[in-house]
Design goal:
This protein has about 400 residues and is α/β, with parallel strands linked by helices. The chain folds into two domains: about 280 residues, Zn peptidases (Aminopeptidase, 3-Layer(aba) Sandwich); about 110 residues, Alpha-Beta Plaits (2-Layer Sandwich), CATH 3.30.70. Helix content is about 35%, strand content about 25%. The protein has ten helices and 16 strands. The strands form four sheets. It has an eight-stranded mixed β-sheet with strand order 1-2-4-3-5-16-6-15, with helices on both faces.
């Protein structure tokens, strides 16, 4: 079986490469992936893969049934959305949509899952169980397409026994993969703080309640939540990415708005921190005569890779690629809505290397120059198919 999957991945590489070029050239923002969804559905239909469209808007759920389809079910997931970034690469497949780019590699993820779908469809008489393919919208935007697809029943009828997903990783060379068992990525919550004071002339600050100076106290003081309220063994990050307020050098404004993010690796501390943040902001503003509105909508949970499943997947990768091509990953404070799936079942989120000999294709994700060594597509589709087949064996 391993040789058959490797041979088919090599044979279908040109087709999957062309698929990636099409998706990359026609990127669409979160929950707007109508063209991408239609394109993917067309490929599945051409290959005879049963599928349902319109799940959580633009999502697709496909099923490949082997022998004894009710015996076991393994899910494979890929995200489809792009980012609001103007691409700066000069390739024949560069983005044709101004200001939108697949800078996080979701075009690669969808292409790899399509390649795996074609492989598995042709091998379905040689394995037992069902493979569920999830093409997901909106990974880059709250509340995350994963949470919406789950609400619409993507993890039912049948319920998967385990789920796998991959993600591009420009820090590793193509042909390699990376795993980390247990805690891997952080929760990701957004902060929206509005500080309302009393505006007036900049030369008469005693007649005002200055929201700008209060905002400065709030930003610096909130770092105490991370440095003095959390267990130092729990990674946490609190960052403000936007401050908006004021319109002239000589005017104190009525209000200031702060936008930021809070990330951590512990779910209990996550919600304790939310309360600390709210209390500190309200109390600081009150002390200086201002009021505050604090909104912290719950974002993505922290991502926990099931240790037993990840250990198996790592061993399967060594069989498929060789020991030297399987690496151990460091924890990351970035977020990923695949974590919603792992709250419901064992999951494994792994990385595929995408640089070329450490010299080319090294631009990070979310960068206008991000691109990949496309040999990674062959690795990705093969690994997805191999994990599905081996996962069905238990």
């Amino acid at each position: 079986m391993i040789l058959k999957i490797q041979e088919k991945a090599a044979a279908y590489f040109p087709e999957v490469q062309a698929i990636r070029h099409h998706i990359h050239a026609h990127p669409e923002l979160s929950f707007e992936e109508h063209g991408t969804s239609a394109f993917i559905a067309g490929k599945l239909a051409a290959w005879g893969v049963k599928h349902q469209t319109g799940v959580a808007g633009t999502g697709i759920v496909a099923m490949i049934e082997g022998k004894s389809p009710g015996k076991r079910c393994i899910a494979l997931r890929a995200d489809m959305d792009a980012l609001p970034i103007q691409e700066k690469n000069e390739t024949e497949y560069r983005s044709q949509n101004a200001g939108v780019m697949h800078a996080c590699g979701h075009d690669v993820h969808s292409s790899c899952l399509l390649g795996a779908a074609k492989i598995l469809q042709e091998l379905k008489d040689e394995f037992e169980g069902t493979v569920k393919l999830i093409f997901q919208p909106g990974e880059e935007m709250h509340p995350g397409g994963a949470s919406l697809m789950i609400k619409e029943g993507v993890l039912e009828n049948p319920k998967p026994d385990a789920i796998f997903a991959l993600h591009v990783y420009p820090n590793l060379p193509s042909g390699t993969v990376g795993f980390r068992a247990g805690q891997y990525m952080a929760s990701a919550d957004e902060l929206y703080i509005t500080i309302e004071g009393k505006g007036g002339h900049a030369a008469l600050p005693h007649q005002t309640v200055d929201p700008i100076s209060i905002a400065a106290l709030v930003i610096t003081g909130l770092q105490q939540v991370v440095s003095r309220k959390s267990n130092p063994l729990i990674p946490s990050v609190l960052t403000f990415g936007k401050i908006q307020g004021g319109f002239a050098t000589n005017v104190i404004p009525d209000k200031v708005e702060l936008l930021g993010t809070f990330r951590t690796m512990n779910e209990q501390w996550r919600y304790e921190a939310h309360q600390w943040i709210k209390d500190f902001v309200h109390q600081t503003c009150e002390a200086y005569g201002a009021t505050a509105i604090v909104d912290i909508p719950a974002g993505y949970p922290s991502l926990f890779n099931d240790p037993a499943l990840t250990a198996k997947a790592e061993s399967w990768a060594k069989e498929y690629l060789g020991d030297t091509n399987v690496r151990t990953l460091d924890m990351r404070m970035a977020g990923e809505d695949f974590s919603f799936y792992t709250l419901n079942m064992p999951g494994c989120f792994f990385r595929i290397g995408t640089n070329k000999d450490g010299k080319e294709f090294t631009a990070p994700v979310h960068n206008a120059h991000f691109d990949i060594d496309e040999a990674a597509l062959q690795t990705g589709m093969g690994m997805m198919a191999w994990c599905a087949v081996m996962g069905l064996q238990g």
